[in-house]
Model the fold of this input.
Amino acid sequence: MNGEKILVVGATGQVALPLAKSLAKENEVWAVARFSDPAARASFEAGGVQCEGVDLVAPTGSEAVRPWRDDGQRFASYAEAMAALAPPRVLQNRTCYRLLEATA
Done:
């Protein structure tokens, strides 16, 4: 992939960090997670990944799960924001996306 906008949700998992940093070399990558460990956030940012601290399980207010739209307004809900994303090309659309292919 090249020149795409990619959202990684639950980014502090074991697979997400190297994947996000690799994708960030040629794409705009955003990572969403609690980022309770400042070192984890710093590692993503050092790799060119934009980070947004959000706790999707226990948000602190309605703004916590309402990402920004391209027009500068907030989505009505996190679910609306996810529905607005372009369908993944490399990942299979299921309850949880599964990586089908990757190139080095």
About this structure: The mean pLDDT is 76. The chain has one domain: 5-99. The first helix runs from residue 16 to 23. Strands lie at 5-9, 28-33, 50-53, 91-92, 98-99.
